[in-house]
Amino acid sequence: KNEVEQSPQNLTAQEGEFITINCSYSVGISALHWLQQHPGGGIVSLFMLSSGKKKHGRLIATINIQEKHSSLHITASHPRDSAVYICAHTPLNYGGSQGNLIFGKGTKLSVKP
Amino acid sequence: GAVVSQHPSRVICKSGTSVKIECRSLDFQATTMFWYRQFPKQSLMLMATSNEGSKATYEQGVEKDKFLINHASLTLSTLTVTSAHPEDSSFYICSARDYRDWPPSYNEQFFGPGTRLTVL
After folding, report:
1. What is the pLDDT of residues B5-24, one digit of tens each?
2. Residue in B32, B59, B109 nearest the CB of A101
3. What b/e string do you get for B12-40 counting C-beta neighbours within 10 Å, with b at 16 or more?
């Protein structure tokens, strides 16, 4: 079954804390995505990765293909980081849908000042 | 980075009317656009894959006669919700893939800001 599990579902942190959001998936993938969805609904793509680690500013994404697991880290968190973070993947056998994404339910992050 | 716009951002309509949502890639050409739907506190779910110049591919359970998709150019796809009913109220998001990104199994998608549809 093609599933994406995220944890935690909800996360409240104090400003400055180091944050980790986890994502596990069950099938072979060609790419894993981390997305950010703001309260208004708009989605921003943060990372797309298929191996190793990527860093952009205070955000770091890692993936372990063998363990089918990825993490998103936020260093020195700030209230403006408050959003829903969504893990999604492009399965290897996408059945002709040309690379559509399978989404997790998201992790709602609230960073308090 | 690549920009995708959606219009309108929010629409409220009466039951039985049809609503058209536009998705545009502003600074790149998109051979493929995806339409997603998100109900409150749920994951985004793929509704259909839209390919320029051809018929859309719908996911299981999505009525193609109710959700009409047209992808007439490399920068525009439209989703028309026909005879909308309250249960169609949802957040609709499109995403687009740059035609230069091949093979499609390894792709980056650019998302529109979404359209919130409320059917009274």
Report:
1. 999 999 999 999 999 999 99
2. B109
3. ebeeeeebebbbbbeebebbbbbbbbbee
